[in-house]
Amino acid sequence: MKIMRHKNPLRGSQVISHEILKENSYNNRHKIIVRNISKESRKPFQENRAFRNITNLCCVIPKKLNEEQRINKEPIVSRSFTDRQKEINNTICLLEVNRGGQDKKVNPQLCEEYVDEIDTYVHSIERLHKIDPEYMQRQQDINAWMRAILIDWLVDLHIRFKLLTETLFLTVNIVDRYLNKEQVKTDHLQLLGITACLIACKYEEIYPPEIKDFVYITNYTYTKEDILKLEQKVLNTLQFNFNIPSSNRFLERFGKVLGSSKKTILFAQYLLESSLVEYRMLKYSQSLIASSALYTSHKLNNNTEKWGDEMWKLTAQTPKDLSPCIKDMILLLEEAPKASLQAVRKKFATVKYMEVSQIKICRKH
Residue 131 and residue 146: Cα distance in Å, rounded? Predict the structure, then answer.
């Protein structure tokens, strides 16, 4: 047995190592090292190569990275498509550059051979589940402003629970379809919102939040039994039918065909989520809202030359159809900085969404 003494640089104490030679089951001699730490003596420690590499990895590299980040740090808030946003866009869109036929043929999940049938089917479903844009007149206790407050709160709930984008759109769709058929009192409107969110999470999410999470988020205003009871009523009223294409799904389809950049898609998504809050946007179909948002985003980037006959055929819209919806969206952008409901605007003001909500929109006179 051989005993080695050296100093532990991390603890400032003495380390005694016992190296014992033993034979294993295969009659091979191997070392077993047992270390006991004591604080009696402090002898100089000669660091070995492995320890030096670990120390450099844990201490030196993070310091250098912090220095580089501090030197290259730029302001977070930006009012236009800056160079920093272009760099982020180029980094994010490395996998989105090639959107031609070659990529579609390689990836079987895109189902290129069924594209036309899928588009026809999706547009047919959209027409079957249209919501009456004047259903609020039949409600006795709530109005359009209460609905806007509820959806603005649902956007905050969506961010806090880190849910999928499609979950938010399905939640709002469930709320509107239920209000279109049933009377809801003022004190049950928030209950309807969390119940619709629960149903949408079960439909879209892999790991949906539990009911107790929704009870907690409402500060225990409602109980678990209240949510389950209303859930049964919503499911029966809507006949368990939640396979409805949202404007977000249409945006994904149109943006993929058009080859839009990440920045353009994010700005169009900002327009879509802003339209969710506004009751007057219910008069437009989901495909019309998606195509209007994407066209507006391309127009702001002066990049509408790609929007040819193929896109007009795919969206099943004409320039005359898009014009009223685009005007309402521009009006939403102009009113956004002074609006009292700011959940969507704050969401898209973060670096994750490339701060697209900070872009100023000015009309040409």
Answer: 18
**Residues forming a β-bridge with 22:** 30
CATH classification at residue 276: 1.10.472.10
Within 10 Å of residue 57's Cβ, how many Cβ atoms?
Answer: 10
Side-chain half-sphere CA neighbours of 198 within 13 A: 23
Percent of the chain with pLDDT over 90: 54
Is residue 145 located within the same domain as residue 214?
yes
Residue 228: CA count within 13 A, CB half-sphere: 6
What is the amino acid identity at position 225?
E
Q: What is the per-residue pLDDT across 40-49, written as a single tens digit (0 to 9) for each?
A: 444 444 444 4
HSE value, Cβ hemisphere, 13 Å, CA-based, for 143: 1
How far apart (Å, rounded) are the C-alpha atoms in residues 62 and 288?
A: 49
For residue range 310-361, what is the model confidence (pLDDT) as tens digits? Answer: 888 888 888 899 999 999 999 999 999 999 999 999 999 999 999 999 987 7
Domain that holds residue 17: 2-38
Q: Which structure tokens are listed for 222?
A: 């409602």
Asked if residue 91 belongs to a domain, the reply is: yes
| Of the candidates 159, 164, 79, the residue with the CA atom closest to the CA atom of residue 349 | 79
Q: Rounded to two decimals, what is the model's pTM?
A: 0.71
Report the alpha-carbon angle 189-193-196, nearest 5.
130
User: Domain boundary at 213, 237, 261, which?
Assistant: 237
Alpha-carbon distance 88 to 185, whole Å? 46
Same structural domain, 252 and 351: yes
Within 8 A by CB and 6+ apart from 176, the residues are 131, 135, 282
DSSP letter assigned to residue 355: T
Helix (H, G, I), strand (E, B) or coil at 30: strand
Dist CA 77 CA 350 (whole Å): 8
| 218 vs 222: CA distance, rounded Å | 7
Phi/psi at 349 (nearest 5 deg)?
-95, 0
